[in-house]
Amino acid sequence: MAAKPIIEFVPLQTPAGGVLVAFAQDGAALPASLGEDLSALAGRASSVGQFKGKSLSSVEAVTAEGQGIDRLVVIGTHAEGAYGEEDWLKLGGTVAAKAKGAESVTVWGERAAGPLSPAEVSAIAVGALLRAYEFDRYKTEKASKKENEAQEKAPATLRFAVADVEAARAAFAASQEVAEGVLLARDLVNEPANILTTIEYASRIAELSQVGVDVEILDEAKMRELKMHALLGVAQGSAMPPRLCIMRWNGADNDEAPVAFVGKGVVFDTGGISIKPAAGMEDMKGDMGGSAAVVGLMRALAGRKARVNAVGVVGLVENAVDGKAQRPGDIVTAMSGTTIEVLNTDAEGRLVLADALWYCQDRFKPKFMVNLATLTGAIIVALGHHHAGLFSNNDELAERLSAAGRATGEKVWRLPLAKEYDKLIEGKFADIRNIGGGRAAGSITAAQFLQRFVNDVPWAHLDVAGTAMASPSSEYNRSWASGFGVRLLDRLVAEHYEAK
């Protein structure tokens, strides 16, 4: 794995060496605190490169002997509107990219308009951490080559020169834990299915106990006792046994109802007997992206000691093909007692979630449930790769999620739920069927199906098929797996559900 940069915070003074990164605003204006010599150097470089301080544009200059640093990098921050959280993350990713190969990098924590706030500095640092991530653990270069390349992938030390060191350090302490949750989610999604089996996945979830998460793992026998036949039906064609993993973080009063997050964890999806085309099937190792976001979120909440009671529930299965595999036309009975016609074995995620959602609301009586799932290709047709689909039975929860998405850049777009769509999943031989009557409204009928298993609990379903994997790269993500959902849901909890 690529080495993470070491993040430090130091007083606002010119470093003795290495790379210095400064931020320019409109017209390439630099902070006065940078000093006349460096400002003049930046001005000459800007003139040659026609640099005007436009957001994320940059110019570089090699310093003369005696100026203390080896290289000056100036990155523009002038934008049409005010910078938001994602803008600072992008800036941090750009810093990491421009400082590539340097052993020591100092980021000047002021702009012409004044000092950066601790929150802004923290977001830049997080952006640099996220940009530095690479999933390369299975590449087998020679040791010497790998060591040299590792030095080029991220700066060894990234120092932020700031006016208030302690405030910046405190702000970053919590943000770093959220970043670790994102990186964990990316790792899980990027792992191949022969490594991240249901057993191995459950084992990695169990490791969250090291950060204070209570973990409980239900095996097949226990799930059979609970009559989770919707989930078990998906798993029966695989040699890998199913698991239901329950994670609990208790950061508030014991009598406080928890917030709850539920994830689809299909570690590989062949489609079952309704088998997928071979082309692109390798990407189905990422069909557990919803569960990875839940695991990463629980890691983040525990790491930053969130003042909330939270529950994470993920159903882990492999949808495979053998003589025992579930057939089209089979009828299964979910934990709720609802009978389901399985008309397409490739619509398996909703079967897993049906039992996980019912179990979660029945046992924990949460304030709300949010489930995440790489559920439908139809959501990519509707929204592409820049928004996750949002469905909800509660307007307040939906708006809070939308606002959190706008703030973090992990955007969601609400689509409808309505009784009219229920007719599309009415069963011929059972209560309901697991697909609609054709290609129309595929993401909506999937959400209508899930809604049957939430009772009256405020609930939201996030279809992350287009955002959890193979989403467009950005300044702070170059990974196939994005870790989408961790920052979004952490913001939702922080702004509305933590004890003040």
From TrEMBL:
Query: Cofactor note, please?
Result: Binds 2 manganese ions per subunit.
Q: Which residues bind Mn(2+) 1?
A: 269, 346, 348
Does the keyword section mention Ribosomal protein?
no
- What top-level branch of life does the organism fall under? Bacteria
Could you state a single Gene Ontology molecular function term? Answer: aminopeptidase activity
Q: Where is the active site?
A: 276, 350
Write the Enzyme Commission number(s) for this entry: 3.4.11.1, 3.4.11.10
EC top class, as a word: hydrolase
Q: Which Pfam families match?
A: Peptidase_M17, Peptidase_M17_N
Span of domain Cytosol aminopeptidase: 344-351
Q: Where in the cell is it found?
A: Cytoplasm
Q: Does the UniProt entry include the keyword Manganese? A: yes
Which cofactor(s) are needed, names only?
Mn(2+)
The reaction(s) catalysed by this protein are: Release of an N-terminal amino acid, preferentially leucine, but not glutamic or aspartic acids; Release of an N-terminal amino acid, Xaa-|-Yaa-, in which Xaa is preferably Leu, but may be other amino acids including Pro although not Arg or Lys, and Yaa may be Pro. Amino acid amides and methyl esters are also readily hydrolyzed, but rates on arylamides are exceedingly low
Annotated keywords: Aminopeptidase, Cytoplasm, Hydrolase, Manganese, Metal-binding, Protease
Q: Which InterPro entries match?
A: Leucine_aapep/pepB (IPR011356), Macro_dom-like (IPR043472), Peptidase_M17_C (IPR000819), Peptidase_M17_leu_NH2_pept (IPR023042), Peptidase_M17_N (IPR008283)
Q: Which residues bind Mn(2+) 2?
A: 264, 269, 287, 348
Q: Which family does it belong to?
A: Belongs to the peptidase M17 family.
What does the function comment of this entry state?
Presumably involved in the processing and regular turnover of intracellular proteins. Catalyzes the removal of unsubstituted N-terminal amino acids from various peptides.
The entry's protein name is Probable cytosol aminopeptidase
